[in-house]
Amino acid sequence: MRFKKILFMAGVLAISTCRIQAQHEAAGMAATVMRIWKVSLVLQPGVPVKWAYDQGVVLEGFTGLWKRTGDQRYFRYIQQSMDFFVADNGDIRTYRLQDYNIDHIKNGRVLLTLYKATGNNKYRLAADHLREQLRGQPRTHDGGFWHKQRYPYQMWLDGLYMGEPFYAEYAALFHEDSAFRDITRQFVLMEIHARDSSTGLLYHAWDESREQRWSNKTTGQSPHFWGRAMGWYAMALVDALEYYPAGNPGRDSLIAILHRTAAAVKKYQDTETGCWFQVLDKAGSKGNYVEASASCMFVYALAKGMRLGYLPAAYREVTTKGYAGIRKQFVKKNKAGDITLSGTVSVAGLGGEPYRDGSYEYYLSEKVIDNDPKGVGAFLLAANEMEMMNKK
After folding, report:
1. How many helices (H) and strands (E) does the chain have?
2. What pLDDT, on a 0 to 100 scale, did the predictor assign at position 13?
């Protein structure tokens, strides 16, 4: 009996310690962000800022912090960052609807947060521009959104995260119930076209035309399972699901997809570090490495999936091990409490100029950097979810 009591107390202490660490590190990361990106997201010093999805990932991390703590500093930072771009008439600086770039939809969720919090109509008008883009977004023959106008007939996992959570939140807020059928279709088509039945993982992208050099001429699939692409996809599922009306038939479809995705994510968690690899199914292959942003995204998606009741509590072990691995592998603190998140690959894409062929060598060739906003935002999201999970 005494031994069991000791084990129980050790477990309570471990959970409490994890909760305190998550809370401290989220606040420290946020303080770092507000110091290095004071007004808006400057990715390259001297280069004018643009409307970019990277910022939306960071600001959603801040949204979670604000909602959890009530600290108005975080809300002011969110509003200041968006006000840099949004005019009083709702026009968005540097945004071009005609590009039909689904990446540019991402920040719309921040606009909706501001509209709901302030009632200021300029945020509604700006969000309306993004909703209008989705109405005209080019599609594959079976109805899937092209990733970009300049990437014709291509669906990327990244695009599900960029477009669908905003689409779902907008539809819920403004009572476009019929939109949920289209949102469901995007996830179903992505799984149909990109999922590998043997691993359960999804390839980074699918080319309906089979014209791209990276695409398999039979299946249209890209060659590899990129960690962050799967991370985008997993986050898209839990974020979109949050806004589905009860009883909507698409909700069950998305939950089933999430269960299959979560099972694959669990299968490819590295047993040694608790993190996930840049190329997910190539652990131990030359040059492969555990990557921060994907690891944070998986922890966030699984933890949120459990919190909202879409996933069983059995995934708690995966998230706890994953978050501990993130802290050990990637998080560095200075004496002032600022946080550096190392280990995030700066970018990975397909096609374009110079051409990205989707090979294993390509995914390992992109730079790995500190405090990349995609990694920073994903870390804030993961830390927020871990804090909420460990309060229970």
Report:
1. 13, 6
2. 42
